[in-house]
Amino acid sequence: MTLIHDCSVESELLAGMRLARRAIGSGELVVIPTDTVYGVAADAFSPAAVQRLLDAKGRERTSPPPVLVPGIPTLDALAVEVPDAVRRLVAEFWPGGLTVILRAQPSLQWDLGETRGTVALRMPDQRIALELLSETGPLAVSSANLSGMPSATTAEGAADMLGDRVAVYLDGGPAGTGYDAIGERPGDTSSTIVDATGVDADGAGVLRIVRAGVISRERIAEVVGEELLQPAGGTSDGDAASDGDAPVGADAPEAGAPAGDAPEAGAPADDAPVAASAGDREGSTAERTDPAAS
């Protein structure tokens, strides 16, 4: 029988978080609430755990999960370089509904799947998710659903689909409830995914919006300038394709995930390395639309 920990009850929250930390450390899976959809999480630095996540959802390695991080400083540890434009974006929109795709540090001991050297990162705006991330470090998180099914917006919905494939379920109430400095507030429905692999350290190149979400193109342009954005409606090699794992009206998640998560648990996407061919970019970007990354 699947046990779901009701995190609105202090004793269950403490027990659930303790078991979740233990499960992550043992390479098992945990379902967590995010500000977008429920996500299924695994230790990002354990290849076996990440493969377990993909197997639980019925996904291939061509759909790598996004990575949720506990804070902005983690960017420099996980990415080769962080363009100034990205620093401005995360300063404005993190924690929250922004997923950024960057070139991953080649020295990292992880295997998220066929990412082609990129990683999709997001800092979720959800108290329980952030608390767990602060204790475990970066987590590979994809929407908590079977591939091809709608992303779960409740812990019960996730358990109905994933069952005993997941060791611990943390119930934080209906997904889409984030937290800000003032308190609880309605959350985002899907993250906006921005591919920053086309911008170098000197700021040359363009940012590409892989998936439209809760942060509008206009808001992004206000922060980085219209001249740095790929023209609206424009196309380029490697435009992200939906992996079909994102529920309508939730996170078109799965992208560069990160994708589905392309929700992010958080829901939710895609990778597109700068030097990749058009075909390569399509392959890596497909997952980046996961709702959990969102």
Structure description:
The protein has 8 helices and 14 strands. With 294 residues, the chain is of the alpha/beta class. The chain has one domain: DHBP synthase (Alpha-Beta Complex). The protein has a 10-stranded mixed sheet, with helices on both faces. The protein has a two-stranded antiparallel ribbon with strand order 9-10. The protein starts with a strand and ends in a 5-residue tail after the last strand. The relative contact order is 0.22.
Structure, briefly:
The chain is an alpha/beta fold. Helix content is 26%, strand content 17%.
Count of discrete alpha- or pi-helical segments spanning 4 or more residues: 8
Instruction: Measure the end-to-end span.
Output: 30 Å
Question: What is the H/E order?
Answer: EHEEHEHHEEHEHEEEEEHEHE
Strand % is 15-25%
Which of globular, elongated, flat, extended, rod-shaped describes the shape? globular
Counted up, domains total 1
The CATH first-level class comes to Alpha Beta
Assembly of the depicted chains: single chain
Mean pLDDT: 80
CATH topology: DHBP synthase
What name goes with the CATH superfamily? Answer: DHBP synthase
Structural class computed from helices and strand pairing: alpha/beta
Strands of the widest sheet, in order across it, are: 1-8-2-3-7-4-6-5-11-12
Helical proportion, percent range: 25-40%
CATH architecture: Alpha-Beta Complex
CA gyration radius, whole angstroms: 17 Å
Give the low-confidence spans.
Answer: 178-188, 235-287
Largest sheet: 10 strands, mixed
Number of strands: 14
